[in-house]
Amino acid sequence: MSATAPARPKINAGEIAVEGVSKSYGALQFRKEVVHDCSFTIERAKLTVMVGPSGCGKSTLIRLLAGFEQPTTGRITLDGGPITGPNRDRLVVFQETALFPWMTTWDNILYGPRARGELSRDAREFGEFLLNKVGLQDFRDKYPGQLSGGMQRRAELARAMINNPKVMILDEPFRGLDAMTKELMWEYYSRLYEENRRTNFFVTTDIDEAVFLADRMLVMSNIPTHVRAVIDVDLPRPRKLSDLVESDRANDIKKQALSILHAEAMRSFSRGSKAAADFVEAYLKRASRA
Amino acid sequence: MTKLQKIVTNPAFWRGMVSIVVFLIIWEIGARSKQWMTPEFFAPFKDLLAAMGFKRNYLPWIGAVPAPSVVLASWLTVLGDASYWQSWYMSFFRVMAGFIAAMLIGIPFGLALAVSRTAYGVAFPVFEVLRPIPPLAWVPASIIFWPTQESAIAFITFLGAFFTIVINVLGGARSIDVRYFQAASSMGSSRWDIFRRVILPGTLPSIMVGSAVGMGITWEVVVAAEMISGGGSQVGGTRGGGLGFFIWNSYVGGSYEQIVVGMISIGIAGFASSELLRWLGRYATPWLKAR
After folding, report:
1. Contacts of A67 in chain B (CB under 8 A)
2. Which end of chain B has fewer CB within 10 Å, C or N?
3. From CA A85, how far away is CA A78, in angstroms rounded?
């Protein structure tokens, strides 16, 4: 497609440090702590995946990282500077789609540069490059409602990447896609990452997704959430799903992460959580298969 | 041509046609009940109908209505009459004046209530007290407030559309998904930018819905206002008082078939205005049909 190298901004990978962060909602007896004394680092130019049970407070953490909300205690810094509000250097790709339904694919992708008044020729060329990269050149003038689920997620990745963020934050971006499309998206997304090595923070409940994508994996506790374990996923890149299914190392990591999640689920199961009961049952089935 | 073929081959089209034709036939036969109904036919129901207050010897309700053929004949005579078209013009003028004013004031007002907590706090309580007052209850007050009857009628039609439009705009703007705001502000949007590129297009579907409903209310209100105020206009004297006055005048003059002509004229006028609005709506929100 691109005989001449298109104008591509230099990737500027950032590092986020989360130090002793807690977040509570409500007051007095209604006070509920969602994040409890959470500390971790989202390392520069690495793909960090946070995996934890659903409803454990992951989305709250994302809102803190994005700057939509402030932590109750503790601090979050990007390259040493405190996070005070939403900014284009930390962009969130949301669960389901947050593409603007009233804009075409092309206008959605160009949203950031246009909003900041930076719609230069270079920005358009970079937009064109990204449009091709995510394979949507034929859907340039379609509205999000006319795209498939997988296309919408790809358009959203492009809409984030055009802003050249220091950190990309993805909140269960492939949730709600069917199994086949999901696997396709894993390979797509992991190729995008392998090509540009931006700092990525990916949140999911899906352990297979986590192991396939991650450089580092943060396994979270139940609500109020904090980091239970950090696992380095030292599988070679570029990764392919077919290789990974047969990899013993991948299966070991999965088992390790699952056993931590299992322990967490047992704990909240004993407190009467129905979701945890489902997890325990699923875990036992899976363990007996292995 | 293909579009016409599509319509003609569609069973729904023929169902609709049959429905209209059957309706007209029943109406024609029923309206001519004086001619074909004998006292014997009427006898079994005599006591029941008498108890309900019907005294004459023809089908109740429908027997008192002029037949469609008579209505059509009467319609053909008024088609060449300038005062009939003057009525159309007057009603359309009032509806559009009130409706456009309601849009021009209602849409910014609704958006202001949605985006500003202060505006909401100050204006909404008064708005909510005034909203349940039916536009027609404003007729006497409005005749006192406004210097001319024309402006009084326009004001009443304005009220008919205004409250509906404001409520729809407010609800629409409030129901925009918070993620759109988060996404926009992350990507560096200013407040004005969010208003222009997120709130405005996000509210547009609700604006169109509110306008369509408001347009319907406007027609109801204008006709009633014209009947009550006696037309009001000085143009062409009492003969150019709008379609509502046309109906009322026909009633007073005892020309029953013209009442029906007036009613159907309003039906057509209301349909045409809604259709115009739907067309504008499709044009303004192209992403909604693209699914």
Report:
1. 186
2. N
3. 12
